[in-house]
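[READ THE FOLD]
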Amino acid sequence: MKNNLFIAFEGIDGSGKSTQVNLLSEKLKAAGHKVYVTCEPTDSPIGAIIRNIFKGRIETDHKTIAGLFVADRLDHLQNKTNGILKKLEEGFTVITDRYYFSSYAYHGAHMPIEWVIESNRLSAELLRPDLNVFIDITPEISMERLNKGRSHIELYETLDNLKMVRDQYHNAFKLEAKNEKIFITDGNRALSEIAEDIWESVSAIN
């Protein structure tokens, strides 16, 4: 395994990304890694605007949301205080809950995916993950989990939309297969089984 890694977790809402991020973080720490966990949208001012849109406090269109994510992602990478590139330079293994494949999937469901990929090209050129981990669940299971665990359903969190998003994830993986390392795991299984699959995939990075 490389000394320090950049790993991006992907999946539709309710896929269990956050849980698996934490489990992988603990395993990496036990293996001697310094680990920095982060997420998108970030807690930056741009990220705050995105979160307010998701909560229905600000109304805008899908293209504007896609553009805000491009800006938030570039700041996420290059921020001089806690940016991903800085953390990697400091020797941390960085795990992010969502990266540009989330944009490809969620925004590609509402506009040409080629435009979304192109608009994120600078981020991809700055830093591609050592591994993109996609936890695959059905949209029906996603909605079941969201309805159990949330008092408020956000923008994008509808069955029809999540079906389109999941399709766009798989479409994006095909389009970017030559450029990216992608690991897809069945998220409908026990947490421990998923975690073991992910650990094996991460351990194989060199």
Summary: The radius of gyration is 16 Å.
